[in-house]
Automatic annotation (TrEMBL):
NCBIfam families: PRK13660.1. It comes from Virgibacillus massiliensis. This is Uncharacterized protein. Pfam families: YpsA (PF06908). It comes from the Bacteria.
Amino acid sequence: MKILTVTGYKPMEINIFKEDDPRITYIKAAITKRLIPLIEEGLEWILISGQMGIELWTAEVVLDLQQEYNVKLGIFPPFENQESRWPETIQEKYQMITTTADFYKPIYKGDYQGVFQFKAKNMWLADKSDACLLLMDSEYPGSTRFFYEIAKQVMEEQAIFIITPADLDDVVEEIRMADPDYWG
């Protein structure tokens, strides 16, 4: 596997409304835990569309991992200026990430024109990737279900990796147990 698309919830879908929410640390740790073995097995590119939440947090994880690993970040938003209605702090983060990424190119030129752009983005990412990593609860898939449905049509089942709520619980417990004060 050389190319992996990563996606998942937008922050409001998982009740995260501040960039300093401590749960983001656990989410990033879970993403890191899944990406490192894939990178060590030869993963070269991680693709995202750059949406708020899981995708931007993944971008931050990848940029950190690039200090130690030879992995590239590609960002393919559905259209230009997708961040224009986001909170200003997230717009600034998005702009920093898109200028730092190894590759950035919107699927469609111009601003939002219709929902077809999101469908085309999902199909394009699924088609260009060898596998995908989704942070998703199958009981409450949220907007992630749109990509997941396309991925099931395009990819083999074993190429769809999911970080579940139970996986997040495991990461939280691992981080807690690694803290010397936990045992104290």
